[in-house]
Amino acid sequence: MIIDRFGWMATGLVMAALSSLLVAQDSPGAKGKATEKKVESKSSDDPVPPPPPPPSASKKPSTTKAAPSTSQPATVALPNAASAHAALVKIQTALGQNPEWDGIQITSVRFENDQDQLLLVAEGQLSEGRLRSKAGKVCESVMQEMFASANGILPLPKLDQLKVIRPAPREAATIFDEGLQHYRKGNYEAASREITRAIVENPFNLGYKYWLVVAEVAAGHDDQARRLLLPLILRRTQAKSAKQSDEYSEVQRRLESVQGAIRQKMNRLEEELLRETAAK
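Request: output the structure for the sequence above.
Response:
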């Protein structure tokens, strides 16, 4: 009995000692010491990891709007004044050599741009409204000849400024007589203006047109006289009826009063144009 009692006591003491040891190992102080030993055991030569990169700023979508394009569509370059003058001469020559087109008088032309379309704006007068379409075809033909082979840009005729003026033969005769009076007095500039007015009132009188050439020759306007005489020369050489021949004979009869230096200059100019047209 006594032995059993001492045996149980010894066993209790052993269990108490083991319990104290386990409590000591789980205490915070023991864990801290273990951590310190673990840090100290790490070699000082171990590489130190680089610090983490700073967070990149998030890219915000741009709120700036692209500026609207201000470029305008390419415009067609306007032909120069020399081209306009050349067009006028060609148009007047084409119209003047055909008696059927005497009612079409185009006195000036210019080029304009309208919404990137090149226009040939003509000014003058028509004896009848129906001649407007014929004038347009003549202008188109001239534009085709001048521009198609150059750059392919054909100006469109704009003829709405051609006024319709009905012929007034009596008024024309009165104005023409005033022009002749100026001519006989040596006032050649005034004579040219009045004869031009007579042609406006009656464009079908061939004699008026020849007298205008005479007035321009007398005034020393050689280039203008040549330009006005050329279609008349072509008209005479291309005459297809006896009526046209008789008309020219009557003109020559009325020009008999023109003599001296003016008549000689007129004849030379006529001969030059006849040679030039025959050579073409």
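The chain has ten helices and four strands.
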